[in-house]
Amino acid sequence: MHSKLIAAAAFTATLGTGAASAADLAMRPYTKAPAFVDSIYNWGGFYIGGHIGGATTNEEWINTANTTPFGDLSPGQGFRQRGTGVFGGGQMGYNWQASNYVFGLEGTISGLDNKGTVLNNVFGVGLDDRFSWRTDWMATITGRAGYAVANNLFYVKGGYAGVNNRLSVTMLPPVTGSGSQTQWHNGWTIGAGWEYGITQNWIVGLEYDYAAFERKSYQLAGASPGTYTFDTKPRDIQSAVVRLSYKFNAPVVARY
């Protein structure tokens, strides 16, 4: 009889403990697991900045008419020369981002230090044409398309390019004469680059561009009688630059 009473008491105590534990569990407040936030780089927005590097110009001028007393070249004769120098300026643009794809529009203005001199001595020393040329500033308006991987953006670009170009000639004594002309050449450009987001606002990058331009007629006779005319163009300008840009309105994008 005593053993039955002890067993019943133990069973009752066990039920009481289980009920108390269940009550404790029911009363505990529910706590949501902390969200895992993955901050991704946002390339969208307006940006402005500067670039610096080097460029080379491939200049060409071919004579089309010569009725001056000082000109040495006949129609069809001419020169081509490449000049290299410092290239730098500013850029501004706007990017749109869709997932990892980034699209944008950008404008640039750059100063160049590309120039050269050619001495035409076909008639010997003292009867020479000295040609001088330079390309001194360039502007572009391009579209950009890229693919973003975290803080890295790999992109290509293409669109309009224009350059300011000058060609001049001076005839050395005893027969003297000179003339010059400056013109704006329209053309196109393509390029590729890489950018890295240091912060959500500051961006650094590297870029290479190739540009080609139209041919124009230059009249170099100046005040002298007759004509000394050349078909002239910068055949291409190639540049490589380091870029630094500041991007506005770039909040962190959270992904859960």
Descriptive keywords:
mainly beta, elongated, eight-stranded antiparallel beta barrel, 256 residues, disordered N terminus, 1 helix, two-stranded antiparallel ribbon, 2 domains, Porin, 11 strands
Descriptive account of the structure:
The protein has 256 residues and is mainly β. The chain folds into 2 domains: 29 residues; 213 residues, Porin (Beta Barrel), CATH 2.40.160.20. It contains 1 helix and 11 strands. The chain has an 8-stranded antiparallel β-barrel with strand order 2-3-4-5-6-7-8-10. Strands 1-11 form a two-stranded antiparallel ribbon. Strand 9 and strand 10 form a beta hairpin. The two termini are 64 Å apart. The N terminus is likely disordered.
